[in-house]
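2024-03-11 09:14:02 INFO receiving multi-entity request
2024-03-11 09:14:02 INFO entity count = two
2024-03-11 09:14:03 INFO echoing inputs for audit
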Amino acid sequence: MTRRVTVEQEKCVGSGQCVMTAPKVFAQDDKLGLVVVIDSTPPESEHDAVRDAVLTCPVQCIHFDE
Amino acid sequence: MTDKGSSAPSFPMKRCPFSPPPEYEQLRESDPITPINMPDGNQAWLLTRYEDVRRVLSDPRFSTNPKSTGYPVISPARIAQLQSENPQPFIRLDPPDHTRYRRMLTAEFVYAHIEAMRPTIEKRVEELLDEIEAKGPPVDFLQDFGLALPTSVISDILGVPYSDREFFQERSKAKLNMTLDPAEAAKATIDMREFLDQLYGEKLKTIDKTDDLITRLIKTRVDTGEISRQDAVAMIDLLLIAGHETTSNMICLGILSLLMHPDQKDALIVDPSLIDDAVEEMLRYHTILHMVGPRVATDDVEVGGHQFHKGDGVMAMISAANRDPSIFPEPDKFDIRRRSKGHVGFGFGVHQCLGQPLARVEMQSVFKVIFQRFPDLRLAVPLEDIEFNTNAVVYGIAGLPLTWTPR
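2024-03-11 09:21:47 INFO inference complete, emitting structure
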């Protein structure tokens, strides 16, 4: 089953760590610098990076579910 | 709050040059959530486990506002400094106020935007090293490099004249000195606000001709009535001090730790792909915000099997969390090859460092070239003569005299 990346953007504080960790999956919007998902079903090669993004997000607003 | 009373350890405990107080390690084993006596006679809870620290720092029921009843006071100078901040900078506010202010600045520190500045920052590093080379050894790398780089970068971003650096560097140092006379700590805070308010006035005269962060803040937030001039000044004050005093100490401690581990320094020269991990390890190992973080429970909250009550002061020590062996094996070992991702050197929760992409780019730019340019860089004095800023809210060194063999 495909693993899906979701975010709670309203919780985001724009630390940018997800973009640093997984730039193919996350970006920040121009207006407020808040997280946007650019690839919600990333290939397996990106999964470790996404898990790191989940770990390092200071407000735990990134979710990576089955 | 507890009857352990006088038997409880007193805060702050004596730290080592390269490690938090050894008591943290013992307490993490025996009493990971333990009462401590604060300097003002009140008690707080000291937290030393990674998970507990992250839980507290990311739980909105723990306030970071020094005006909240029960907020732990780390020193008389610190509380005088905090009380003289009028208005308070948003770093000391809780959501939703904190969120409102922080979001006025998040776009400025977007990762991609800071990445785009990397060539300029790398160029500045080279220029400073050119100047140092021309000057010849020995050179104080704190003054001429570690402090100079982030000061010039944040000055450019904000639009603060670099020529005023001595003034604001000295006030920043005073604001962070925990053992200063409280009246002096308060005066440094007020002087800094006056200086920035004056600068704000200058900016108004050239508002249509300049494009820097201060000017953008005026145009998009003050002129629209969202915030007051004083609010803007408080924001600039915070960005200026956070933008230079922290990174300068990280750069110098980073250089020093590599000089003390020559094998790792050599590895870095041979394999620049280690730079990013090396920088993360420096952030973890040194955790210069060694007084972070004071919090106070605004409700009854259970964390790590402990029931906190409303009004309980908490010291959620990121310096202890970053040495938790269950997360970072052999935590007292400096190892640039370790996986230190997930460290809390920039804090955790909604208050985590806003400028972290900038700090990273600055540090990465430094370690990309410094030992290439000066392969035999070494201390110009014995290590014992290096003075550490133990009494500062932001830990660091008072000077870094280095020498090398000129080419």
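2024-03-11 09:21:48 INFO post-check: Chain B touches chain A through 25 residues (CB under 8 Å).
2024-03-11 09:21:48 INFO post-check: The CA atoms of residues 133 and 307 of chain B lie 58 Å apart.
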